[in-house]
Amino acid sequence: MASDDTPAYIARRGISEYDAEYTRKYADFQEALAGGDTLSATQYAKDMAKIREERKSFIEMYNEHVDAQRPPPSPPELSQEEKAAKPISAMDYGDVWEMSQNSKYGLDEDAFRAGMAEVRRRKLQGG
Questions:
Q1: Which of 27, 34, 42, 127 is the most exposed place for a label (fewest CB within 10 A)?
Q2: Within 10 A of 53 (CB to CB), how many other CB atoms are there?
Q3: Cβ atoms < 10 Å from Cβ of 85
Q4: 98, 77 in Cβ contact below 8 A?
Q5: DSSP conformational letter for 36
Q6: CA atoms of 14 and 62, how far apart (whole Å)
Q7: Domain span including residue 41
């Protein structure tokens, strides 16, 4: 049965199947070589090469899926000059918090949080 991480389970199962198929072809290849059947040995070698490529492609597909699930990287931190040039309308609470920490009047954390809650409440009420 699949675990909570179904794509990883599918990947492990698929890789195991490719490995088992490769092992069978390798055994057939060795048997053909031992019996002097170079025609069959050549075909088994080609089959083994195809299995290797399919396995590699399967792993790449899984890795692409994993990469697609990751959130995009955060934008780089703004320089002090860029922060200072940012218009108030483009600021978020983090920007206001940082700006307030540098105030000569100090920062009342409880009042700041209460203000954020009040803004949120008014936005929800449409006011």
A1: 127
A2: 10
A3: 10
A4: no
A5: T
A6: 10
A7: 6-69
Indicate the SS3 state at residue 34.
Answer: helix
pLDDT tens for the 127 residues of the chain, in order: 444 578 889 999 999 999 999 999 999 999 999 999 999 999 999 999 999 999 999 999 999 988 988 988 888 888 888 888 888 888 888 888 888 887 888 888 888 889 889 988 998 888 6
Query: In this structure, what CATH number is given to the domain that contains residue 52?
Result: 1.20.58
**Gyration radius from the chain CA atoms:** 31
How far apart CA 123 and CA 71 sit, in angstroms, is 28
Residues 90 and 57 in one domain: no
* DSSP category for residue 89: G
How far apart CA 30 and CA 90 sit, in angstroms, is 69
Phi, psi of 97 (to 5 degrees): -60, -50
57 and 12 part of one domain: yes
How far is it, in rounded angstroms, from Cα 31 to Cα 41?
8
Instruction: Provide the domain count of the chain.
Output: 2
Q: What is the pLDDT of residue 2?
A: 46
The pTM (predicted TM-score) of the whole model is 0.55
